[in-house]
Specification:
This protein has 293 residues and is mostly helical. Helices cover 76% and strands 0% of the residues. The model has no long low-confidence stretch (mean pLDDT 79).
Length: 293
């Protein structure tokens, strides 16, 4: 092709597709193909997931089962209690950190500037990256549950109603924290770093959320106990455990209370996260620091 032909190609007046759905699909599919190309990483992460579940099962041998009744879920063993916590916690933070990690990768590789200057709306970019994060994280969460149920014989209650209810709770859990993830991504655009803050927030949430122990133990520490019930994850984990350990559904009164609170957190955090993200995009455009890292 001659140089003149290339110039004429860019001068063409063809109508460009501006469908947001098409943009979301393009972002999702491009990044999902990148994920599939890292086969060794996928295999190693799968092995790591299996090993972590096995480690928790051995830890359960040292826990008095009677202490787990303090959690309020009836006569359940520690591995059942912990499995739901570990699966949901890992899924949540893989989803939340996926967007910020992707943006850091774009910044390091110098591909953020073409994305921002293209016709792709940043909202489409966020949605596409988030969908990829949901699927990738879901793969590992499903692996944890399969190993727990199939190999360790963890007695979770799995049927159509509990499966659908658990899926709904997982979606609400991610939505309640989506604003925080989007906010972190906006800060990363400006300051180019955010992993330490995200890691610290994830660690605090897992500790105060009661992933490995009943929150009753925190009643002796009123400040920590109060902070624990301020976090959306505490309510999401409570609902997930009631569903998978007790056979409750999303319409059960205790679960409905958790659902209402998660929806309220989503309504509050998502608009704040979007405002911070838009602030970050506008600032790097104004300062001309889109391509710096």
């Amino acid at each position: 092709m001659k140089v003149e032909d290339i110039i004429n190609l860019f001068r063409g007046n063809e109508i460009r597709v501006s469908s947001e759905t098409r943009h979301v699909w393009a972002v999702f599919w491009a990044n999902f193909k990148i994920f599939l190309s890292y086969r060794t990483w996928v295999i190693m992460e799968t092995i790591s997931t299996i090993a972590s579940v096995a480690m928790y099962s051995f830890m359960g041998l040292q826990v008095d089962a009677k202490r787990i009744t303090l959690a309020g879920y009836g006569e359940v063993d520690w591995i059942s209690f912990a499995l739901v916590g570990v699966a949901t916690a890992n899924y949540l933070w893989m989803c939340i950190s996926r967007l910020s990690h992707s943006l850091q990768h774009e910044i390091r590789e110098g591909t953020l500037e073409p994305i921002i200057t293209s016709q792709i709306n940043m909202r489409s970019y966020i949605i596409g990256q988030s969908i990829r994060g949901f699927l990738v994280s879901g793969y590992f969460m499903l692996g944890v549950l399969i190993v727990g149920i199939g190999v360790l014989r963890v007695p979770l209650i799995i049927n159509v109603e509990t499966a659908l209810s658990f899926t709904a709770i997982i979606l609400l859990m991610v939505l309640s924290y989506a604003g925080i993830g989007i906010m972190a991504a906006g800060l990363i655009l400006v300051y180019k770093k955010g992993d330490p803050l995200t890691f610290l927030f994830a660690s605090i949430t897992e500790f105060l959320g009661g992933v490995l122990f009943p929150l009753k133990y925190l009643e002796s520490f009123p400040v920590l106990y109060f902070l624990a019930w301020l976090m959306p994850y505490t309510y999401a984990l409570d609902a997930a455990r009631r569903i998978l350990l007790n056979g409750a559904t999303i319409f059960s009164p205790p679960v409905l209370i958790d659902v209402t609170i998660l929806i309220a957190y989503s309504i509050i955090f998502i608009p704040i996260g979007l405002r911070v993200f838009n602030w970050g995009v506008n600032r790097i455009r104004y300062e001309g620091t889109v391509s710096t890292y």
